[in-house]
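Field log, afternoon session.

UNIT: design team B
ACTIVITY: writing a sequence onto a fixed backbone
BACKBONE:
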């Protein structure tokens, strides 16, 4: 039987790269998007890919999505969706609405969805992955760069650790840093392209299946300090 991956936030960028890499490796992929049309690259994988509508911040959308996948078991569920902080804003200048949207998207909604998806992840060998960033590392804190985005990913990491501490399921949880990647978010001056990052992350996921640990890793499998 084909292995199966759920990629949340697969319309473009790293999510689309992850979905494409799993499809190229023969996996079945459930790819979530917020708006039609689905990326045209999925057309050549018909029968191997299912497209689902999902906005992780919209509770009705999350419940409807979960009800549609209730009987499905995934080898990997990768919650990739995320956003940048408002340009140039700091704790002194950000509005409550902007901060709420950033933290909901990057920290709260991923954990809330991940907690519900645990039942849909294959026991023993299954993996729940969250797309974080090295910028969320408190130890490696880069100083003044993007403080609100860094804080949102630190919050995601901390919430993931608390969630794992109380988790009942015997699965592997990975907090993944994709590298600095050329996407709408990463910009054209980033270090690596989407497929270099996606191939690296899928290699890491395949290698970590069954570890049963929670690790903070980059796309080459290198451990990042919390
Ligand atoms: N690029 C980098 O260098 C880099 C480095 C470290 C970490 N990351 C992280 O990697 C992830 C992907 O980043 P990217 O560079 O690929 O960014 P991107 O090109 O801007 O793509 C972001 C993806 O997230 C989706 N998304 C945003 N809000 C959502 C919501 N409320 N519900 C569902 N989907 C939502 C977007 O969907 P729409 O198309 O509908 O907007 C899109 O598919 C993010 O978590 C980001 O923080 C990126």
């Amino acid at each position: 039987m084909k292995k199966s991956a759920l990629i949340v936030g697969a319309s473009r960028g790293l999510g689309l790269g992850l979905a494409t890499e799993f499809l190229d490796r023969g996996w079945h992929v459930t790819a979530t998007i917020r708006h039609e049309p689905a990326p045209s690259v999925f057309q050549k994988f018909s029968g191997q890919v299912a497209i689902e509508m999902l906005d992780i911040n919209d509770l009705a959308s999350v419940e409807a999505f979960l009800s549609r996948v209730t009987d499905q078991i995934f080898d990997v569920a990768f919650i990739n969706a995320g956003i940048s902080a408002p340009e140039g804003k700091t704790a002194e200048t950000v509005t409550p609405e902007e901060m709420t949207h950033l933290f909901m998207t990057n920290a709260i909604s991923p954990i809330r969805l991940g907690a519900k998806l645990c039942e849909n992840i294959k026991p023993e060998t299954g993996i729940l992955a969250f797309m974080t960033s090295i910028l969320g590392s408190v130890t490696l804190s880069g100083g003044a760069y993007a403080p609100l985005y860094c804080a949102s990913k630190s919050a995601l990491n901390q919430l993931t650790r608390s969630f794992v501490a109380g988790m009942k399921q015997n699965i592997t949880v990975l907090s993944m840093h994709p590298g600095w990647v050329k996407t709408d978010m990463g910009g054209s001056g980033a270090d690596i392209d989407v497929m270099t990052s996606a191939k690296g992350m899928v290699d890491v996921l395949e290698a970590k299946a069954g570890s049963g640990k929670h690790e903070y890793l980059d796309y080459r499998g290198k451990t990042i300090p919390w």
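LOG NOTE: The chain has one domain: 4-218.
NEXT ACTIVITY: expression trials, pending approval
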